[in-house]
Give the backbone structure.
Amino acid sequence: MNPFTWNDQYSLGCPDIDNEHKALFRMAEHLYDAIRNGTGQTELTTLFAKLASYTRFHFEDEEALMRGSGYPEYEQHCREHGRLTAKVSMLEWQFRNGHANVDIATMHFLRDWLQHHVCGADQRVADHLKQPRMLKSVTATKQEALAPTLPS
């Protein structure tokens, strides 16, 4: 079984975050399968780059939700994101420049980090966002962010 197959233990009960997490798991699942099927390093590097790019997008989105809701562990959570982003950026550079290969060890690192982060730090964010006083605030913040800017 692919270790990146989504299951309900990863569901946080926040549809926006859960949908982005599902996309991350699907991309990682696809990359893992490509490694197991002997796909060449050029394609693996491309798949890894797409996963890295989506991860950065997801972190920005999640951080905006935390900031908008006044999440008390915002700084610590962002530092976790920063550490993974730095590690993934370094790996991405190594893969692109032929200094390392995308392999099962890389995927084990990503699996462990993703499972730990989603079930730990992200669960705490979701618990915060699901508090009744937060639901109105998050909805209003999201609507403001999505609203078109009208000329004055």
